[in-house]
């Protein structure tokens, strides 16, 4: 029946992931490229849904990256993560 269901579009990268080391403050905490992107958007004040839309991810995948970020940065909130990343001279405990 017309109008039922949903259209789903999937985009899969064909290139292998780059092997270069992360740059910027993320290198200090050994953040992956996607984690750095999530952190950059988080610092811009975006919510999970907006981050997911910007990066073409699901909200659950964004939550996964945020959990990893919090663990690597040694923080427990979004505000702490942004503050810690804004101070690259602070080392991980």
**Strand percentage, roughly?**
under 5%
Q: Work out the helicity level.
A: 40-55%
- Gyration radius (Cα, Å) is 16 Å
Oligomeric organization of the protein chains: single chain
Shape: elongated
Q: How far apart, in Å, are the first and last alpha carbons?
A: 58 Å
Class of secondary structure makeup:
mainly alpha
**Number of distinct helices:** 4
What is the typical, i.e. mean, pLDDT?
Answer: 77
Give me the strand/helix succession: HHHH
For the secondary structure, the number of strands is 0
Low-confidence stretches: 17-25
The largest sheet, given as strand count, sense and whether it forms a barrel, is: none
Topology:
Layout: H1 33-43, H2 48-55, H3 59-73, H4 78-85
Helix pairs in contact: 1-3, 1-4, 2-3, 3-4
Structure overview:
There is one protein chain. This protein has helices at 33-43, 48-55, 59-73, 78-85. Helix 2 (48-55) crosses helix 3 (59-73) and helix 3 (59-73) crosses helix 4. The protein has 93 residues and is mainly α. It is built from four helices and no strands. Helices cover 45% and strands 0% of the residues.
